[in-house]
Amino acid sequence: ILYNVYISDAPLNNDARQWGFADDLAISIVHREADVILRNYLYILMQWFQIKKLKLNTDKCVILETSARNPNVQIYADGTEIKKVTQAKYLGVEIGKKLNYTNVIQNTSEKIRRMTPLARRLSRIKSQTVKIQMYKSYFQPVAEYAAPLLTLAP
Fold first, then answer.
1. Span 41-67, mean pLDDT?
2. What is the residue range of 54's domain?
């Protein structure tokens, strides 16, 4: 919680959507001039990082460009070029250039399938309240984990 308070004044950009979880931040930009917006936003973020005495781990930064426009654009942060990728993993979820969710759905289905033996054991529990609590604790989070990513679908 202390970290969340520390970063609560991070600069925002109306053209860039921020996806934050713990100390991870993803930025999505849907705009004709996405490269310009990203450059400007990174410049502002880097200034804020300096004020807060934070360091961007550029080794973990990637750009997943989903359009064919400007394929040779170079983006730098902290003097380091951010590498471009055709597939990225964010919070354990694979996101591809085409933004289709076949892999996300397949991986989620596989995780749920692997939980089948646990579900069978839980079915023996008599208490409906305990069953519901177990479902909410174990199964529901797996099924809903990547749901926010669906808002990025074209």
1. 90
2. 1-85
